[in-house]
Write a structure and sequence with these properties.
nucleic acid binding, 6 helices, SH3_Tf2-1, RNaseH-like_sf, mainly alpha
């Protein structure tokens, strides 16, 4: 089978009948409903691993997104259904629909610019560039980027614990005043 999963948020107080109604409303398809939870073996045990994976992914989202984890449940579902399990040799989405899943993240491809308009793509790419620029550190990104940039001429001693430095133009976005510990 495809091993795809659909994650639907619900209230803990729901009965089994309410779960089934919610599933049919959200999915809108004629299938048999086998509801299960982790470590309850009413189904054929195939749901146990996806539920454990969902729990792990939700833990990560709760840590990162705090209170609005349910808003990101669709992203978790997208991530889960687009991973590459070795048991079927393709993503669950490809196995189920026989095509790759199109995400909104990939809308910057050349062929799609005409669909959504070049202005919108340009605006979005500018925002991505600004975020990326904020992540970049001295022209390199990541943990292994340089922490020490170089020695610079001291312009003035602004306080007991701060100095103002003469920075080059490529560091124009950095404030020129530094604490003595740096």
């Amino acid at each position: 089978m495809t091993k795809s999963a659909h994650f639907i948020p619900f209230k803990v107080s729901y009965s089994t009948g309410n779960y089934a109604k919610l599933y049919l409303r959200e999915m809108g398809i004629d299938t048999r409903v086998k509801l299960s939870t982790t470590f309850h073996l009413q189904t054929d045990r195939q749901a146990e691993r996806p539920i454990q994976t969902l729990e792990d992914m939700l833990r990560a989202c709760v840590i990162n997104f705090k209170d609005n984890w349910d808003d990101d449940l669709s992203l978790i579902e997208f991530t889960y259904n687009n991973n590459y399990p070795s048991i079927i040799g393709m993503t669950p989405f490809v196995a189920l629909y026989a095509r790759r899943c199109r995400s909104h993240i990939g809308c910057f491809e050349v062929g799609e610019i005409s669909l959504i308009g070049p202005e919108l793509v340009h605006e979005a790419m500018e925002k991505v560039w600004l975020i990326r620029k904020g992540v970049m550190r001295f022209g390199k990104k990541g943990k292994l980027s340089l922490r020490y940039v170089g020695s610079y001429h001291i312009l003035r001693h602004s306080s007991k614990v701060a100095y103002e430095l003469d920075l080059p133009n490529d560091l124009a976005s950095v404030h020129p005043a530094f604490h003595v510990s740096l």
